[in-house]
Amino acid sequence: MYQNTMFVTIAQGITQADVDAAENAALNVGDSGEKIRLMNLLNEAHQQFDTNTNVQLRQQNEAARKAVNGLFNNDTPTSGAVKSNLTQSAIDAAKNLVNQLVDSTVKANMQKDLDKAQNLLNASKPPVNFDITVAPFKLGKDNYVTGQFSGDIAKISLTVNNNAEGSKINVTAPDFKYYANNVIRSQTDIVILKAYDGNGKLLVTKTVTVTKDAPALVPTGAISSITPFQLGKDSYITGTFTGDIVKVELQVNKAPLQRINVTGGTIKYYAKPNITKTTDVVELVAFNAAGEAVSSKEVTFASTGTTNGDVTVNPFLLGKDGYVKGQCKLTF
């Protein structure tokens, strides 16, 4: 604990823990004479340590008070004015010294003077001059939050849904942009842009409006027309459609058959084995991309044509003829 074996002055950097450890070691010495000698040396070390500690605390108090007083005119907090060349860094340096003080009462009094200096400095600064506008952020289209600004703004940051504030980036007037594609995910996100001056002081917060384009409207699907089906001649039911239709289904007498894909606005459904008579109730049902039935239309039957002709009947001879006979002539 001492500088040398002369045991006159304690070494530099001795702490309370060092003193306590040496005292515990001395108490465990078995030789009573040696223990008394060591305890005498420890008592002297204690006195020197306490004296040095008090001197150190006094020096810390004096250094902090000098720094705080130096913020004011005539080095006097009661002057009510700070020095004309006072800077924020000088206040910060004084604050650092005050924070190291041990005596809470002394520390509190100096903190009051620090607060006074800070308020006077803030009041002496010219009013902050700036303006900023933020464009809406469009989901699915924009990668950056963008806008324009002027004046004392030097940095901006982005905060989404009260999570940790994003990195502060430097900006240069008049335009700014902040990459946000990876953090803005929903139209319900709460997005806050913060603007700072060159000293890191928060100047303003702006809410970023998040928008989203309405989905493109697809016309509702509809079967436009169906060509009449000629039984015995046609193999396919054909027709046309418009809008959101991707499949059609044939229903014969209310019984649904296979659902097939359709494209290009045209329908062609093989139906020859399924439609067997003109009294069948035949219907086409159309479905959209979501699988919803959106249109239906009855399939009508085409006429098979008109037949004309002449019939000639021979006389019937009673008692001789067994059949009525004649000739017919048909014209198609």
UniProtKB/TrEMBL annotation:
Boundaries of every Pesticidal crystal protein Cry1Aa domain copy: 59-123
Domain Bacterial Ig: from-to ranges: 131-212, 227-301
Protein name as catalogued: Uncharacterized protein
Species: Listeria cornellensis FSL F6-0969
Lineage of the organism: Bacteria, Bacillati, Bacillota, Bacilli, Bacillales
